[in-house]
Write a structure and sequence with these properties.
CATH architecture of the largest domain in chain B: 3-Layer(aba) Sandwich
Structural class of chain B: alpha/beta
Helix content of chain B: 25-40%
Shape of chain A: globular
Number of domains of chain B: 3
Strand order of the largest sheet of chain A: 1-2
Radius of gyration of chain A: 29 Å
Order of helices and strands of chain B: HHEEEHHEEEEEHHHHHEHHEEEEEHH
Distance between the termini of chain A: 27 Å
Oligomer: heterodimer
CATH topology of the largest domain in chain B: Alkaline Phosphatase, subunit A
Strand order of the largest sheet of chain B: 2-14-3-13-12-1-9-4-8-5
Number of helices of chain B: 13
Helix content of chain A: 40-55%
Strand content of chain A: under 5%
Number of helices of chain A: 31
Largest interface: A-B, 75 and 69 residues
Shape of chain B: globular
Structural class of chain A: mainly alpha
Chain lengths: ~725, ~475
């Protein structure tokens, strides 16, 4: 390497900002793993040394260095640091796509035995079960298990720890929970213990322990645990001088901090097969299934099946999965969350837009409503459950200003009537001069207009401030004979986070879809065809475009990288840390022109994977508005792009714009498989390994055979060997 | 919190790869500042008092300085000596040498309105008026105190919670989260709303009600009991997964260490603890607030904590104890008078009360000798609003009152300062102010917080510290 590499990548030149002499040579320990990996790829793909380099290594030298580095990197993979890194979502595409789906891999799938830290959603549900509608108490109990907010899938079993911060929050919450359980909403067994004279009987103590385990560890205690915590309870009473309440309190708190209330065990405690794999025990599997679809522990049916040993048969697993999936009474929030994390459109509110640019006041409300409407599109597509991915990439229909799928048409009608009455009541009155709060008499009159105005909790009641917000938009609508958006009326439901009250908000919001308040007649039947020349699918939805934009600019790099990684199963390395990637400012040039800087050879190596894809979205500004002209430079927008080296020959070629790009991607097998790989990661809580090949192929087949049913694919994944079997990692 | 011991660091270094560097950095920061001599021999203390409904520039500007502006790009700086303070600040007259009235820093990168939530001390926008969102970084209050190790780290005390919402709710009890302070990205600082509970938590290791003591001792035993549970489970799981339980175990060890440290401080805690009176469990707002200030003073003097933030009120609060029974802070903020007083007069009443509490705290610290001076010399007490300069702040400016010697690190004490107006050359944002303070205290950060895009577009530089603020 000294002979062939360090000349350019050393103290003298440091090309591409890589200095080999600065890299840590302890490769097998996973140090500088990312860079060494990159170097390995460059050598193996013969990209380095560059063709025009004077000194080329001979074949033997090249082979020997590749072989040596390969072996070191292989060792690094099982080093703690390497394992940690490879366990990250962003390393998922390291596994060769073609090999995964080749059908040639014969190793049987499994997951490593693992502890999986509780996730925030499960904890939220537990809290709600305990505090029910005691809102004040509920608000106080905070989230000990929050997740990172990185793009992509964050709830992986690898790398999620319970640390000091977790414990401190858990302890605060435990105090709150137990205080609540012993003072406000007292379970019978606790009441019995507190009300009897003297210490509890061992049976009573056990009943209390059992109750708390089910509440917080979400399962009954084992015989050993039962005895241990019972004794602890009784001992604590003695230690506190016979204070039963104090003893009970500390025992109940201890259960809240039990390690199994923090980590879910998926060790594979069932029987061993001929391939060195152990199957998840019935209890483990019941939890795994329940938490795959819901945020609740196994329901009665599932738990009974586990207790009677039924889950050992694959048919029974199928049955349970389908039962839960098809029961509309069981909420399955995990599914929508997958689509949010895969597409990432839910991050739109986090990309701060200088609201003043839009003469707007409250950025978040608009962004939240846009995300909500993308959610509706996903839920609607899942309800049809046909050709799900292609629909999401290419649908011409959108939801705009809509409340929600569950809304009853009659209810919508009533809301429209209520709005109209509000407008008629105020239109001739000096509403512009209203004070913030209504006078009592006026409040009564408003409340008599329509039952909607009576049913509201105090803090969501109509006020002068709100009327001043509503009236300008309602005036525009009714004077132009337009049906107002009902989304602006959800304040009445208490969902203030996405309540589009003011006309400013509404104009700003509608402009994201290139609609205007004085022309948009909000359809009752949604989704509706918006403008198929300008937008198709989620990637041209304002929420996705905003989530993948910068504060004041579009973001072709991130968008291109997104498509490359999420849809084409390819990898794009991160910006080398030493590169100060700044797009030169120049008001006379379009962004595409300013990006010429990336055409330099050392940049283009990676940028060619992103720019030609991301640039197709230049027909939308950084707020997702379709455009043909670049405002700053006054030049027309060039939205052409190129699909290149995708690994799917039918895809490659030029595209005119994002609409064409999406239509082409929607047809691709590789795109579908990449999507399934991501579903795998989300539901397995880890990156795929080559040995997961059979599970992935089966999921893909299930999807294709069913005409693109997401449910069929999911059932296949959740009953796969990867999901059910555990096997230790190779330690060598 | 911040009492991470060296052994734990060493341990974590072995186990955590992604986060190791981040965990080490505060310690390194300390070492670095010790090396360049910026950390004196006395602990530095930070108190942030956050009111709601804005702090109007006029209200804290002495009569003789009203209307005076910066000339050119140089801030207006006038020594306060000899200048009478506005009526509502009268209680601070005895502290004038260590008082700073700081005007003209903008905060337009935050969401303007009834509150900027974490933005006020974290310099970034919250998603909306009704949502504090996720804090993007440790806020200035906790970041400053995190360099000063103490058993409890940063302590949050609150009369009420989030600025908006909860109309008609009774005064809250127990832990709450007002959306103001963060210990790290995504990690909000819990505030204690009940003075009696705060008393047990802070001083319970050495003094307190019998019940409080008993609970404290039982919890100590519980930590040991659970540590055994974790240890046993750790033996059962595959080696690769043992780290996860090790981390959890370490967290218990940390808590126990704090408790052990508190034991060694028993005498100081007993001597310095406030007297637990009925006021600590009163339902009257002003009693509770006064109790929080007593707790704060004792905490600082005993060394239990070097950083405290007090949430003074929120928009729903009704100042019954000050005779303002008709309207809450929100209505007053919107110009509605109460009990025969104009809204402006009501605001004066509230501010006068807040300032008297602030002066009381400053007085206690000044009565406590430290080296050749007093504890107040090594303290910075900051009074601000989470809504900037008005009830609906536009955040063109963000007024601050600062009392204390600030360890001699800042040029602010004793001065009235007004920055050039928003959009003018030489103007600064709260990001610049906080950056300056952090740098003055040996935290060599390039820039704290988000930039103001409008200023950037105008080509006005606003990154980095303002050197004239630092001694």
């Amino acid at each position: 390497m000294d002979n062939h590499c360090v000349g350019c990548h050393g103290p003298k030149k440091a090309k591409g900002s890589i200095r080999l002499d600065h890299l840590d040579s302890r490769i097998s320990q996973g140090l500088d793993f990312e860079t060494w990996n990159e170097i390995y790829d460059q050598l193996a793909q013969r990209e380095m040394p560059p063709e025009d380099a004077k000194h080329q290594p001979d074949e033997a030298q090249r082979a020997s260095i590749i072989s040596w580095l390969g072996k070191e990197l292989e060792k690094a993979r099982s080093s703690p640091r390497g394992r940690h890194l490879l366990g990250q979502f962003s390393f998922g595409n390291q596994v060769d796509h073609d090999a995964l789906f080749s059908g040639e891999i014969k190793e049987l799938p499994f997951s490593p035995p693992r502890l999986w830290r509780m996730n925030p959603n499960i904890y939220d549900r537990t809290k709600k079960r305990i505090f029910k509608d005691h809102w004040m108490e509920l608000r106080k109990a905070r989230q000990p298990f929050s997740l990172e907010q990185r793009p992509g899938i964050n709830d992986y079993s690898e790398g999620l720890f319970a640390d000091s911060a977790t414990l401190e929050t858990l302890l605060l919450n435990a105090r709150g929970i137990v205080e609540h359980q012993l003072n406000r909403d007292i379970p019978l067994i606790f009441r019995t213990i507190l009300e009897s004279d003297g210490p509890p009987t061992p049976e009573q103590a056990e009943a209390a322990v059992r109750f708390q385990f089910k509440t917080l560890v979400l399962r009954p205690p084992s015989a050993k645990e039962l005895a241990r915590y019972r004794d602890y309870f009784l001992r604590s009473i003695k230690e506190s001088g016979g204070d039963v309440r104090a003893g009970l309190e500390v025992c109940l708190k201890a259960i809240a901090l039990n390690p199994e209330a923090v980590y879910r065990m998926e060790l594979g405690l069932g029987s061993k097969d001929d391939h060195g794999r152990t199957i998840l025990s019935d209890n483990e599997l019941a939890f795994a299934i329940a938490f795959s679809l819901t945020d609740d522990p196994p329901d009665q049916t599932l738990w009974s099946a586990a207790q009677s040993g039924n889950l050992e048969s694959r048919e029974e697993v199928h049955f349970q999965l389908e039962r839960i999936l098809e029961d509309p009474a069981i909420p399955k929030p995990k599914i929508l969350r997958f689509f949010r994390e895969f597409f990432g459109y839910h991050r739109a509110p986090q990309v701060f837009k200088d609201a003043e640019r839009f003469k707007n006041y409250d950025w978040g409300i608009v962004a939240n409503q846009l995300v909500h409407e993308a959610d509706l599109l996903v839920l609607h597509t899942l309800k049809q459950d046909r050709d799900v991915l292609r629909q999401l990439l290419t649908t011409e229909k959108y939801f705009v200003g809509h409340i929600g799928l569950e809304a009853d048409p009659k209810d919508l009608e009533q809301r429209l009537i209520a709005l109209r009455q509000l407008y008629d009541y105020w239109k001739e009155k000096p509403w512009k001069k209203l004070e913030y709060e209504f006078k009592a008499g006026i409040r009564t009159e408003i409340e008599n207009l329509h039952p909607f105005f009576q049913a509201q909790p105090m803090k969501h009641r109509m006020s002068g401030g709100l009327v001043k917000d509503y009236m300008p938009y309602l005036t525009i609508c009714y004077e132009n004979g337009l049906r107002p958006m009902l989304a602006q009326f959800i304040l009445m439901e208490g969902e203030r986070e996405r309540n589009l009250t003011s006309a400013h908000d509404q104009r700003f919001f509608l402009s994201a879809y290139n609609l205007s308040a004085d022309q948009f007649d909000c359809p009752i039947e949604q989704p509706f065809e918006l403008n198929k020349e300008q937008r198709v699918g989620l990637l041209t939805h304002p929420s996705w475009l905003i989530a993948h934009s910068k504060n004041t600019d579009t973001n072709p790099i991130t968008r291109g990288k997104w498509i490359r990684e999420r849809l084409l199963a390819d990898q794009v390395p991160d910006v080398p840390i030493t590169v100060d990637a700044v797009v030169p400012e120049n008001p006379h040039k379009t962004l595409r022109e300013r990006f010429q800087a990336t055409r330099q050879q050392e940049c283009w190596r990676c940028h060619k994977k992103m720019n030609p894809l991301g640039m197709t979205f230049e027909s939308y500004d950084d707020f997702g508005r379709f455009r043909t002209l670049d405002k700053a430079s006054g030049k027309p927008i060039d939205s052409s792009g190129l699909l290149d080296s995708t690994g799917d020959a039918s895809l490659d070629g030029k595209v005119e714009n994002a609409v064409e790009l999406m239509k082409r991607l929607g047809q691709s097998d590789r795109v579908r498989q990449s999507f399934i790989r991501h579903a795998f990661r989300y539901w397995m809580g880890r990156n795929e390994m080559l040995s997961d090949s059979a599970s992935l192929i089966a999921a893909d087949e299930a999807y294709v055979k069913s005409g693109g049913s997401f449910q069929a694919m999911l059932v296949s994944l959740l009953s796969s060997d990867s999901f059910i079997f555990r096997k230790g990692r190779a330690t060598k | 919190m911040n009492s991470q011991s060296t052994s734990r660091r060493a341990f974590l270094k072995q186990f955590s790869f992604g986060s190791g560097g981040a965990l080490l950095s505060p310690l390194l920061g300390q070492l670095a500042s010790a090396a360049d001599g910026t950390v004196g021999s006395f602990p530095q203390r930070f108190v942030f008092l956050v009111k709601s409904s804005g702090l109007t520039p006029k209200a804290i500007t002495p009569e003789s300085l009203r209307g005076q502006k910066a000339t050119g790009s140089t801030p207006l700086r006038v020594p306060l000596k000899g200048i009478p303070l506005p009526d509502s600040l009268r209680a601070l007259e005895p502290f004038k040498e260590q008082l700073a009235i700081v005007q003209g820093f903008s905060g337009k990168m935050c969401l303007a309105g009834h509150t900027s939530y974490f933005g006020a001390m974290g310099v970034h926008a919250s998603p909306s008026e009704t949502s504090s969102g996720r804090p993007l970084r440790a806020t200035i209050d906790t970041r400053l105190s995190s360099q000063q190790s103490s058993p409890f780290g940063h302590v949050g005390l609150a009369l009420r919670g989030r600025a908006v919402g909860g109309a008609g709710d009774p005064i809250p009890q127990g832990t709450l989260y007002p959306g103001l302070s963060a210990l790290a990205p995504g990690r909000e600082l819990p505030y204690q709303a009940s003075p009696d509970q705060a008393f047990d938590q802070l001083f319970g290791s050495a003094v307190g009600s019998k019940k409080g003591r008993k609970r404290y001792n039982l919890e100590t035993g519980m930590l040991d009991f659970l540590a055994e549970d974790i240890e046993q489970l750790r033996k059962k799981v595959p080696t690769a997964e043992q780290d996860k339980l090790s981390h959890y175990l370490l967290a218990f060890e940390d808590l126990q260490k704090r408790r052990t440290k508190l034991l060694t401080m028993s005498e100081a805690i007993r001597n310095g603890a406030p007297k637990l009176t009925d006021k600590f469990s009163s339902q009257l707002g002003i009693d509770r607030l006064a109790s929080h200030f007593e707790l704060a003073a004792s905490c600082l003097i005993t060394g239990l904590s070097n950083g405290i933030t007090i949430r003074m009120d929120n928009l729903e609060h009704v100042y019954t104890g000050l005779g303002l029974t008709d309207q809450n802070v929100h209505a007053i903020g919107h110009g509605t008078g109460s009990n025969g007083k104009s809204a402006e007069e009501c605001r004066d009443v509230i501010r006068t009360y807040h300032i008297s509490l602030m002066a009381g705290l400053a007085g206690k610290l000044r009565a406590t000798p430290e080296g050749d001076g007093t504890m107040l010399d090594n303290t910075m007490i900051v009074y601000l609003s989470d809504a900037g300069e008005a009830h609906h702040g536009a955040l063109h400016e963000w007024p601050f009152l600062i009392v204390g010697g600030c360890g001699g690190r800042l040029t602010l004490p004793g001065n009235y300062l007004r920055m050039p107006d928003y959009g003018q050359p030489g103007h600064g944002t709260i990001g610049n102010l906080y950056t300056s303070i952090l740098n003055a205290y040996g935290d060599p950060i390039n820039h704290f917080g988000d930039p103001d895009f409008s200023l950037e577009r105008e080509g006005l530089p606003q990154r980095g510290p303002i050197s004239s603020l630092i001694t």
